[in-house]
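Treating backbone geometry as a discrete language has practical consequences that deserve illustration. In the encoding step, the backbone of a single protein was reduced to a row of integers, each denoting a local shape. The amino acid sequence and the backbone structure tokens for this protein are reproduced below.
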Amino acid sequence: MTDITATEPVRPGGLWLSFTRNRLSWVGLLLLAAIVFVAVAAPWLAPYDPLEQNIVARLEPPSAEFLLGTDSYGRDVLSRLIYGARISLFVGFVAILIAMVIGTAIGVISGYIGGVFDQIVMGVLDVMLSFPTLLLGLMIAAMLGASLENLIIAIAITEVAPFARVARAPTITLKQRDFVEASRAYGCGPLRIMFRHILPNMLSDVVVMSSLWMASAIRTEASLSFIGLGVPPPTATWGGMIREGFENILDAWWLAVFPSFAILLTVLALNLLGDALRDASDPRSR
């Protein structure tokens, strides 16, 4: 009886039940929801304008007036931290969405066609995977220049290869299944088979991994902003705030510590959520 149950397909209700049974999944979900709420409600939650300068109050430590202190231009750190969440979440979400669409399409097409075409595509992807994510993003961002759009493009390109790898493996298995052969015999074309029959059967794996790689995208965004290849100032970004605080780390520790802690919480929430989704979608873990 146990073996029969283990081989049955996972229903959405069972997937949700497996997800909710994991206590850490709730921690990640609630923490991420709180961060998203802060980013969306930034105009109402931020006590000051994140770009407003007050030279008289520059480098003020955390106090009742400025809860997280001020930077070298007298700008409120808390307000900039709240608005910086918008940039980090937007860049991470859009970059991963672009990478997921392009990478999944490449993986499905390459795995379905196979042969020499598959070898050439996988060879190119292997070259991309041979570079560390940050180094590849650094090279692309340096060539394109510092801007929000170029930052998203650079991060998206670095994540295309992993998505293609994840999509290719199940495609090779699924294209040999009976329902695909039946569709082919019925007269369905390759594009219809790939994106109507194969893609829906492996999309859950791609979506689960996207939550984990979004954390990587946020780290990459912070790293590129730290070295000056992210969103140009004075726009508030967590990586840019850490860079500004690094110059005053001994005199004004709060400038770098609080943005670093915000990145830590966001990456932790995404990793907890991604691990819970991966375990819930894996029949062996249940």
The CA atoms of residues 24 and 272 lie 6 Å apart. Residues 1-13 have pLDDT under 50 and may be disordered.
